[in-house]
Amino acid sequence: MNARNPVTVEVRTMGRTADESVVDQWELKAARRAMRNLKAVAGGQVMMDLLADQIEAGDRFHHDLIAASGGGYRESRTAFAVRGLGGTELAEWFQGQAATGRFQDKALLLNAHPEHYVEPPQYPGGMVETIGGHLTRFRVSVAGELPAPVAAYLDPAYPVTLMNAELTLDDGTPFAYCLHQARDTETGADVVVRVVYPAAAPDSMIEGHCEHLAIEFRSWIRNAAAAKR
Questions:
Q1: Crossing angle for the helix pair 87-98 and 203-228, nearest 10 degrees?
Q2: pTM summary value
Q3: Least packed by Cβ within 10 Å: which of 24, 86, 111, 225?
Q4: What is the CATH number of domain 15-228?
């Protein structure tokens, strides 16, 4: 095969022609459908048991990062320009869903990202998801007060708080913080969401979680807009 002339595929079906971008969308729709099904039939403790060894490896990974970080932090940060939904409206929806750290509608939580595997059944709020290439089990609790080096990441240009939260490992060790902010604009909202991790977190982990935040919060922004309608 000539590398300079990559293979392309054109599909003809249902009386029309589809290029590969259309097939990509069909594949994405099918993948989401499959993930929803798996999370529904193998959720709760069943999923926890299936993933137990990977979750334990994730605990070790994050403990090692904390030990190597000397109390320092770095952020993963993703921003959104939203049209048609205000920052205050988004905050009201988000607080209505997650003011306690636990989502009221579990489907909106689990389906916000394909790698939201399961909410641990024994936690009042939490998740098992992929962080830094490792399955990570954590609790979520609303943070009334943040450590000073973490609070320094807050941006006063975004006065609307969606959530400030502390994420802790299974043994209660804090390993990350969520700082989610917004502001109203003439056409909608500017939103900035952060997860602040130990300073030893590799670039690949930070970049990967920026992508994670983009997928997750786009879903929740769409959910909030749908609730408004």
A1: 100
A2: 0.92
A3: 24
A4: 3.30.530.20
